[in-house]
């Protein structure tokens, strides 16, 4: 039997249903009210999804996280092959926007980045098979279900993705403080991919070395860095500003 993934949070489960995700069962807290909860109930009923109303103690046992009164068992998240995804993306646009995450390890940062990527029209997120944050319940909840909207690819090494994208005429930009250029010096209007590094180490130096361009955020205060999800948002919104 295929192993299921447990997700929690009303919005995340709603997005899973709307994305036609295969849902095994939904556990709902007895007596819970609210418009969003009613929307979830309506979707469960209209899609004939197996569900049970249970005491909050049952949900607390299923997960130690903030479940918002709803927990679901779903089919495992599907990961894409980069080559096949790129072919599909090119059927829709000649100027794709990709996001590469070099061993980002915090699931909440990962989820927040996925959410921002969906809001900014990113065509795909590329992660490394080893050393990257998993796509688990925390990631899915933090993404507000955006994980079901943005294709995620796994590669053996981020450099493999860099080389493939460069060979496909996609410009690769490394977000790093090890440069004098800021993101405002970069032309994001063509096909491009932005690399973000891990929370502590940043981008692997060997990956920075092969990037086409390097850019940083201008920091005017005394703190030397931003949270990676915040920095990622700044880069992505500058990209879509230029593309409008």
Number of strands: 10
Number of domains: 2
* Helical content (DSSP H or I, runs of 4+): 25-40%
Mean pLDDT across every amino acid position: 94
| Named CATH topology of the largest domain | Alpha/beta knot
The proportion of strand residues reads: 15-25%
In CATH, the homologous superfamily of the largest domain goes by the name SPOUT methyltransferase, trefoil knot domain
Strand order of the largest sheet: 7-6-5-9-8-10
Structural class: alpha/beta
What CATH architecture label of the largest domain applies? 3-Layer(aba) Sandwich
> Tell me, what's the shape?
elongated
Biggest sheet record? 6 strands, parallel
Rg calculated over all Cα atoms: 19 Å
Number of helices: 9
- Highest-level CATH class of the largest domain: Alpha Beta
């Amino acid at each position: 039997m295929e192993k299921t993934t447990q997700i929690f949070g009303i919005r995340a489960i709603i997005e899973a249903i709307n994305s036609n995700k295969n849902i095994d069962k939904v556990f709902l807290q007895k007596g819970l009210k609210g418009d969003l909860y009613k929307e979830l109930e309506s979707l469960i009923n209209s899609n004939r999804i197996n569900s049970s109303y249970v005491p909050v103690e049952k949900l607390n046992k299923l997960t130690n996280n903030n479940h918002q009164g709803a927990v679901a068992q779903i089919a495992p998240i599907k990961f894409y092959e980069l080559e096949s995804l790129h072919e599909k993306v090119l059927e829709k646009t000649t100027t794709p926007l990709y996001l590469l995450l070099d061993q980002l390890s915090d699931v909440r940062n990962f989820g927040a980045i996925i959410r921002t990527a969906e809001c900014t029209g990113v065509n795909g997120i590329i992660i490394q098979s080893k050393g990257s944050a998993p796509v688990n319940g925390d990631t899915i909840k933090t993404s507000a279900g955006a994980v079901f909207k943005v294709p995620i690819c796994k590669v053996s090494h981020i450099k493999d993705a860099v080389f493939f994208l460069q060979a496909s005429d996609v410009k690769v930009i490394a977000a790093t403080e090890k440069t004098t250029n800021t993101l405002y010096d970069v032309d994001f209007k063509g096909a491009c991919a932005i690399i973000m590094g891990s929370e502590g180490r940043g981008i692997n130096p060997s990956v920075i070395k092969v990037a086409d361009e390097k850019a940083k955020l201008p920091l005017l205060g005394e703190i030397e860095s931003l949270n990676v999800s915040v920095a990622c948002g700044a880069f992505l919104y500058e990209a879509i500003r230029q593309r409008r």
